[in-house]
Amino acid sequence: xxxxxAILILSTVLDGLTVGLVLAWYGLxxxxxxxxxxIRLPHVLAASVAGALLFAAKLPLHVVxxxxxxxxxxxxxxxxxVLMPVFGVAILVGAAVARWRGGPRPFSVPVVVLxxxxxxxxxxxxxxxxxxxxxxxxxxxxxxxxxxxxxxxPIRVGVLADLQTDRITDYExxxxxxxxxxRPDVILLPGDFFQAAPETFEKELPALRELLARLDAxxxxxxVQGNIDSLGNLRRMFEGTAIRLLHDDVTRVxxxxxxxxxxxxxxxxxxxxxxxxxxxxxxxxxCDARILISHTxxxxxxxxxxxxxxxxxxxxxxxxxxxxxxxxxLVKGCQAPRATAAGGLTQVNGVYTxxxxxxxxxxxxxxxxxxxxxxEISLLTLVSR
Length: 385
Description:
The chain has helices spanning 2-32, 41-64, 69-101, 109-119, 121-131, 170-181, 198-212, 231-238, 272-282, 338-341; strands at residues 137-146, 155-159, 186-189, 221-223, 243-245, 249-255, 258-264, 289-293, 311-314, 323-324, 328-329, 344-348, 351-355, 376-384. The chain is an alpha/beta fold. It is elongated and about 85 Å long.
């Protein structure tokens, strides 16, 4: 990470220098030509294009040094969070100093307005980096899938997805404690528990076990493997806890006077063992509801109402972490529809699908950012059809 951080800083500085040098060249060329020397909006646009071309030219080099999708996303984030505000402040300060000295105006009015807009990215990025990633909310949904008539009360299903931490802090403890305060009858964990180096995992393992041991429910706690989880590490994490790992497996539980069939599949849900588990789950027609836990919501794309699965519960997408109102996540992270990837309850191929935005966020070379997409724990209330 230290090497990547140095590359990120150097790359951002080069982008900024490119924009600054192009603007300085325009100003100098105007003076030599005897024209009005102030910088106009077309000059800024030209400088931005030069910076963008350099950014694009560097992408192959970033890939060579190991940056993939999340690392490249971090580069773009640095432009918005650092380069744009620095540009805006430089323009505004330069304009203020020139006015104070009584000298010629260095920038046109549209450029000054653009600079002000760039500075406004500061509160947005501060919120998205330091506030919203930890603004944990509780999302609730009512799902009419219980069969067997109206007997028995509704079933409360707690969902805690994508803890995705690199160390246990009060934030992770709050997430577990808030989930337990909802008094769920069943708890589902759709994967992605810990994301850090192996030596960090060994150090945090006791704290992970202590945290996960707090999870308990009358209908059990059921988990699946996420794409960042190894089976060996999951089994070590779950030692001494009430959590049952469903790896291409199906279980039957009695809760609230009802019978639930709960199946869990591995991240690569298209493998024969996973598909066999889904068929077994769908064939359990004597149960009041059949629930499939899959880390990625893409598993629902292989289901139809006729498969017999009533509900798919997933995570993985983090809701995209950044959403645009009216559009949804900029990055889906899956093949499922954008509305499904955004999080919450939808129907896909006639099957109810709940996707949690997760508790944590992507780590490694990815920026810590959430915008219009707060982290969540979820309470699903299953009621009669």
